[in-house]
Each structure stands twice: as structure tokens, then as C-alpha cells.
Amino acid sequence: MEKEKSKIAYLAGLISGDGHLESKTNRVIIFSSSRNFSNFIVKIVKELGFNPSIFFDLAGNEWKVAVHSNRLQNILIENFGLVKGNKTLTMNIPKLDKLDIKYFIAGLFDAEGYFELDKQRYYRIRLSMKHRKMIIFLYKQLIKLGYNPTMFYKADGANVVCLNRQKEVRRFKSEFNLFHPKWLLIK
């Protein structure tokens, strides 16, 4: 990752999926089941000049990276539409330039994205969230970037964006800076 704004856009995407801004403090939390990925998040946060801590939450069975910073919280709120507390239905859609939108999307996919193997042969990349406006935003952004995503809603209230075409799956994986180790399993 290059410049500060792009790193923060990536973190905003991560937090939009697997994190939150605490409502009564200045603490920013990002979760991950992967220790290696959590260490990567710590590295990015340190490069931005913040002092993170990392700990394992036994109750949640996940690693958490915490940053106490009014400045970081304000940047995430003012520039990326994140909100304090429960963001599931209240988060605003960010307004980003073309470069930063890719970093935001990469962070979102590192947090909430996954892949499936269809018919033991074809990969598809998906992202599922309950925040319908965010899924619609993601769907439209992927179209603007030249992809042909599909979008559907599940009975449990989740909204899904999917890339099914193998050429697009390969393009997505090479075009976006995905850092979570789960993406290494796509061959």
C-alpha cells in the first residue's frame, strides 16, 4: 500500500465488515480469526502513526486490534461514513476517489468476502452483509470498474454480491490488493 489515505480507506473497508468504533470511547476495533492477518493490520496502523494493541478475545474466539485515537475515529467518521456503535444499518456510504475506492473494497472483501468452489472446478468470489445499501454500493462500484457482478438476497436477511465468471475472479484477485491469507487458497 502506498499513501496514507489509501491505507485509511483500506482500514475503513475492514472496519465496515469486521470492526467498529466504540460508542462511548475513542477506541477503534478490528477483528480477525487469523493471527497473521491481525499482525498485518497492526503493521498498517503503526505505519499511519497510531499505537495499536493486539489481543485474543476468548469469548469471540478471534484476534482484536485496538487503537485509542480521537483523530483516527474522526477521520473514519468524517471521510468514510463510519458511525460509532452498531453500524449494521446506520453506516453511511463513503465518497471516495477511484484509487481509494479500490482500497476500501479490498478491505471490505478481506473482512467479509469469501470464495466458493462450484462443481469442484469454478471459483466464485462473494461478499455477504446485512447492510443492504453497502451491498448495492459495492455492486454499482464493481460495475463501474468493468465487472459483471450478480446480487441477491438471502432469507436470513443477508445481501450478497457475487463474481461468477472465472476471468473476472482472476482479474479481481490480481487487480485488488487482498491481504487476508484466505485468498491464497484460490489457485
Report a brief summary of the structure.
The protein is α+β, with helices and mostly antiparallel strands and 187 residues long. It is built from six helices and eight strands. Helix 1 packs parallel to helix 4.
Task: Name the CATH architecture of the largest domain.
Answer: Roll
Q: Could you give the count of β-strands?
A: 8
Task: Please give the domain count.
Answer: 2
Q: Hey, roughly how much beta strand do the residues contain?
A: 15-25%
Number of helices: 6
Low-pLDDT parts are: none
User: Can you list the strand order of the major beta sheet?
Assistant: 1-2-4-3
Secondary-structure element series: HEEHEEHHEEHEEH
Distance between the termini: 23 Å
The biggest beta sheet reads:
4 strands, antiparallel
Bulk shape: globular
CATH class of the largest domain: Alpha Beta
User: What is the rounded Rg?
Assistant: 16 Å
Helices and strands: which structural class?
Answer: alpha+beta
